[in-house]
Structures are given as structure tokens and as C-alpha cells.
Amino acid sequence: xxxxxxxxxxxxxxxxxxxxxxxxxxxxxxxxxxxxxxxxxxxxxxxxxxxxxxxxxxxxxxxxxxxxxxxxxxxxxxxxxxxxxxxxxxxxxxxxxxxxxxxxxxxxxxxxxxxxxxxxxxxxxxxxxxxxxxxxxxxxxxxxxxxxxxxxxxxxxxxxxxxxxxxxxxxxxxxxxxxxxxxxxxxxxxxxxxxxxxxxxxxxxxxxxxxxxxxxxxxxxxxxxxxxxxxxxxxxxxxxxxxxxxxxxxxxxxxxxxxxxxxxxxxxxxxxxxxxxxxxxxxxxxxxxxxxxxxxxxxxxxxxxxxxxxxxxxxxxxxxxxxxxxxxxxxxxxxxxxxxxxxxxxxxxxxxxxxxxxxxxxxxxxxxxxxxxxxxxxxxxxxxxxxxxxxxxxxxxxxxxxxxxxxxxxxxxxxxxxxxxxxxxxxxxxxxxxxxxxxxxxxxxxxxxxxxxxxxxxxxxxxxxxxxxxxxxxxxxxxxxxxxxxxxxxxxxxxxxxxxxxxxxxxxxxxxxxx
Length: 515
Description:
With 515 residues, this protein is an alpha+beta fold.
């Protein structure tokens, strides 16, 4: 079988590596940093342990399938999956609080009626019915199949069946998520609940298509899950599965160039001084440029599009038939808090403290003068996991805020985030032992993405602006995996990109998608 070079050891790239090794290929992963996982990182200090990337796993079926297809031990024997219940607590700008159970339609609707008033649950439930229709229409082309050659069909068709809205003798239908909230939910708190899913992915609800209704639907239908020991344990399990299948890893080994000849990839060039100690010995050959050449029949790139373009000298990887350029992706500001005092019983794993100034937050995130919002939405994560703390008398808490990519973070920004989190964590300031700040610059260092940008999942409609580039490129044998390629960002989507790339290599262009 073929020789395959994988650039990057992120989740999508490793998913592809494991699957390709099972198919009989010799797979070598070249990672510029000293560890695996990409954005799925970990920070440890004084017995406290924190995830520095995703905190929860939606749609775990993607990784269950990966482990079924690549070995005898299923996912649940490699990590401990826990369904998070309640799914989340919410603190709204007016002080209203609601706690929503996990994957229980009746429970969610009853909780909303009790907290927000009769009728709120019904409106949210009706919205979820329409969101399910959008999910059914877009699931296969936007998650389970390679990007259609005629992708303009996805760009032009809105899968969300919005309700007719009469206004000034005209009947209109919602085309954006903000219009869905205003016309169909008709409650500022339900609006915050819906729009929060878009903002968390760095999407402006005022411009994001109604098809983004699939984001809250996925949480509702498939639940939210946590991995004991932190989501980093999922990355460890995927890495170990790769090793079991014979995948080789070269850490601290950046790829300097992808080499192509006559329109087809023939290998990669590595820096001699870095590759010599990498442990990925593929029989070095001289390229005549002071770099080591590693031949490959296929190259799978798990890097951002601008980084990928920079690896191919004089070659246009994308053309006029490709999807439009996406809006600039947002990043994250993360605060890791070490608290004295144990986690109170009954505390929700995740609490969303919604912004007290929705318009101001959106202006700072997506306006002409971007910056950290003065009144940000803060996601407070408080896992019930003894593995994350030195003892039962301490608690590890993570605060996450969506910020523009490349945003500079001031001490005042950090203080405002702590103030907002205090609405969810009583006595936060008095309990605080220390905190660690992770900025977009830290994400950029870990992932290589410019400005620490974090990719969002692909969405239909909006003229294709929220689709991601195809897994194939204009160079034969060069494919793209991970959150920056189809089907986009997020743990399940990155995992699916690995399955799609494998199918395209093993079965060729006729591959129609995951079964």
C-alpha cells in the first residue's frame, strides 16, 4: 500500500492517520510542536488540571465509529464517557436563571415554562421541531459526505423551515438566526439561549443563516458528554490508537514544504536539524535545498488554509470553483481558576452567564473596531472530576469567552470576565487561589492558526460563506483534514474529516461518504 505523510497531530489528522493505517498504508505524522491533540490541550499546576480547548464532547458517535473501525477496544474501554446532566444552567441579563436537563425534551420545555413563563417552552419546542428538519436535510451533505462538486446547491438552499412572519402588509421568513429568535421565539432570554450557540462558535447571529439552528439541536438530540480526566484524555486515546495501528509520529518536526511534480504530490520536505531527532525515520533523501525529503504517495494536511498554501511553492490550491472565503474566525479567551473549597453538590457542569449588553457584545466581536466585549457572555465549566484537583477541598473552574482572533487581552478584560463569572460562582473572589490566562496568542502557538482563530462547523445557505474548503485540493494526492477543511470545526466535525479523507484515499473520487 501507499506511503502517507500527515502534517499535524490534531484530532482530524490523527483520526485520518488511524483509519489509513488500518487500510494498510504506512503513515507518518509530522507535528511541529512536541505533543499531539492540536487545540485539545492541557494545563497543570499545583495538582490542578485544566483542558485548554474544548470542554465537552458533542455527538460522541463520531469517535465511537473511529474506535470500532480501527481496533478491538471500543471507545468506552479507552476513556470514561459521562453524559452531562443537567446539560447547562443559564443566567440571563435580567437575573432569570434556568437549568436545562440533558437530552430530555419534556424536561427542557417544563424548565423553560417554569423559569420564563408559560408559552416559552412551547415556542422553544416548536423551534426544535423545525431545527430537526434542518438537521435531517443537511446532516449528510454537511457532515457525512465529501463536499459536493455542485456545492452551490448547499449555498443557495436554506434547510431551516422558518415560519411566515407578517409585517407591514408583507409576509417574510427568517433568513438569519437573529430573525428566527426575534420572530419565532419572541423572548429576549430565549434569544440569548439561541444566539449563544452561534456566538460560542464565533458566528454573528445577525448574519448567520437560520440553518445554524442545527447547533442547539445537536446538543438537544444527542446530549453533551464529558470525558473523565478532561477532553485531553480523548486526544490521548486517539493517539494511542494510532500507535497501536503502527502510525509513526515525528514531534518537533515541522514540514517546510509539500513537494509536487506534474500536478501530483510526491512527498514533503523537513528541516534537517529538526527532523533528525524526530523519531520518524523514513529513509532521508537530499532535496538539494538543505532539507530532508520524505517521499509520499499522499499527503494529508491538518493545518489552516493559509498555512497550507504556504507549504506549496507556486501552486494555487484553491480556484474559482471553490467555496467563498469564510468570514474571519473568532478566538477564545480562557481563564483557568484554582479555587479553595470543594465543588458544591448539585453544581451544574456548565453555566452560561449571558451578556448584559447583547448589542455591545456583538459590536465588539464583529464590528469595525473588534475587541474583548465589555460585557461578555462567559461559559463557566465546573467538572465533577476528582482527577482535576489536588483534593476534595479544592475546585478547578474554567471560564471561556469568545473574542476576535488576534485580540489583545488587558487586565481590565480579565477582571470583567471574573466579575461576570461571579454571577454563577458565589464567593468567587474570596475562593480564588490563582488564575492562569490563555489568550488568542496562546492558541496560535498551540495550533498554528493565525490570530488563534478557532474554526466553526460548516453551515448551509448564506451563499456558501460558511462552508469550508473541500478535503481535496488542486494537487492530486494532497488532501486536507481537521477543522479548517470540510465539514469544519468542532470535535465531531474534525473527526468526520478524518473519515472523509480516508474514504477519498482508499476508494478514490467515487467515495460517497461515511456509512
